[in-house]
Amino acid sequence: MKLLVTGAWKGAKEQLNNLQALGHEAVFMQNESDSLPCSPEDIEGVICNGLFLHHDLEEFTSLKFIQLTSAGFDRVPMDRVTSRGIKIFNARGVYSIPMAEYALWGVLSLYKKARFFESNRLEKKWDKCREIFELYGKTVAIVGCGNVGLECAKRFKAFGTNMVGVDLVEREDDVFGKIYSIENLDEALALADVVVLTLPLTESTKGLFDEKRFLAMKDGAVLVNIARGAIVEETALKKALKAKLLGAVLDVFKAEPLEEQSELWSLENVIITPHNSFVGENNEKRLADLIYQNLKRL
What CA–CA distances, in Å, run from 282 to 75, 190, 210, 277? Predict the structure, then answer.
């Protein structure tokens, strides 16, 4: 199979010989927005992330395999992929562990007043804080019970929390206890001290967390978004943060990078990171293992 491999796979150059050893003809391009290094009609498989944001899928007339380096499918024209019967795989499970650790870190940073103590350290101030929260006994709602959501649930549960999930259908689960259907999202939000978003961005989830959703949440709750920024309406979020939420841990935004004039930067109860939650030193090994498994399966 003629494979086009892009720089979205960080370790791609080191893997080209291994791909060829499997019987594939591997062609490399660093930037997905660049001109293609070969004729698109000759390409039978691609390993990429946002390639089809810059190149029309219809030009790839021989394409039968897509391996994404991302967990989400929102950068791919899935309707056309499906209609053509192209096999597509995402990076399921590759980034789940660092993302789950990030979610836990973010909540603990807010609960334990990390910003307060770091500011005092820089100023060499010995000043105690009496408003410290415990995670133990809190209720955590994971909205999106896929691989990332499951890893989040396991880590929060280890701290003695009560876990609930929200997914497409209601069901019982050993890790979550109860999983609510997405139609009953507000019922789960009313219970939760912490809400972690790990659901995919689709037409039905775009803007899902609007003013109505924030009003459904408990006073003093924490929102963690490690999914996609467009799931949250930022204007409604800012209003909620000023009025009732304890805080938010935000790794993703509708427009990235977050614009400098955004009010979110200056809010004291917000942790902001630059779409960085997925980073971990074991990602490359997990991704390479997954790619080879899927190629062999194909």
Answer: 24, 36, 35, 13
Domains of the chain plus CATH, in order, are: 2-94+281-297 (3.40.50.720), 96-272 (3.40.50.720)
Residue pLDDT tens, the chain, 298 long: 999 999 999 999 999 999 999 999 999 999 999 999 999 999 999 999 999 999 999 999 999 999 999 999 999 999 999 999 999 999 999 999 999 999 999 999 999 999 999 999 999 999 999 999 999 999 999 999 999 999 999 999 999 999 999 999 999 999 999 999 999 999 999 999 999 999 999 999 999 999 999 999 999 999 999 999 999 999 999 999 999 888 999 999 999 999 999 999 999 999 999 999 999 999 999 999 999 999 998 8
Is 256 assigned a catalytic role?
A: yes
The DSSP line for 187-206 is HHHTT-SEEEE-PPP-TTTT
User: Does the annotation count 130 as an active-site position?
Assistant: no
Is 275 an active-site residue?
Answer: yes
The active-site residue, picked from 32, 151, 228, 233, is 228
